[in-house]
Amino acid sequence: MEIIKNLHSYFAYVVLAILVLAVINAFAGWLGKREFRFDKDLRVSLFALILSHIQLVVGLILYFTSVNGLKAIQTLGMGGLNAPARLLALEHPLINIIALALITIGWSRHKKKTEDTAKFKSIAIFYGLGLLLILSRIPWSQWFN
Known about the structure:
Helix content: over 70%
Number of strands: 0
Oligomer: single chain
Shape: elongated
Number of helices: 6
């Protein structure tokens, strides 16, 4: 259990770094009206997509096996959760699933676009929204504790 928890915690730094890089790259390409290149732009966006999905799978495993996840809701009920417990048991998983859905939508939409600016725009908007949602539900008190 501790291995999965540590993997989820430390891998989050890698995922956040590549997501930030993908969002910055997409905004720079969109606003700079650059050509969407396979060797750089596509790969950065794809790595962000893949790594964030791996993080989601590890998080779901943790959610269903940890005492802070589903077991907390089953034991205490929704009304019995205090704010930190509610963050871990409900808000963090739900918002991050929504964030991953947005990132996936951004990836899917970019593939349908033919113009480079539209590709960058799709990735910038949807990956950016996903990143903001992820950042809003990170248990910061545990990260810096």
